Amino acid sequence: MNHFWVFSGKRIKRSLIIAVALLFAAGIVYAEGKNVQVFFPVDSGPAAIYSVNTDKKQVALTFDISWGEERTGPILDILEQKGIKNVTFFLSSPWAESHPDIVKRIVDAGYEIGSHGHKHENYSGYDEAQIRAQISKADAILEKVTGKKPNLIRFPNGDFDKRVLRVADEMGYKTIQWDTDSLDWMNPGTDKIINKVVSKAHPGDIILMHASDSCRQTHEALPQIIDSLKEKGYEFKTVSELISGTETKTKSVE
Question: Are 50 and 246 in contact, with CB atoms under 8 Å apart?
Answer without folding.
Answer: no
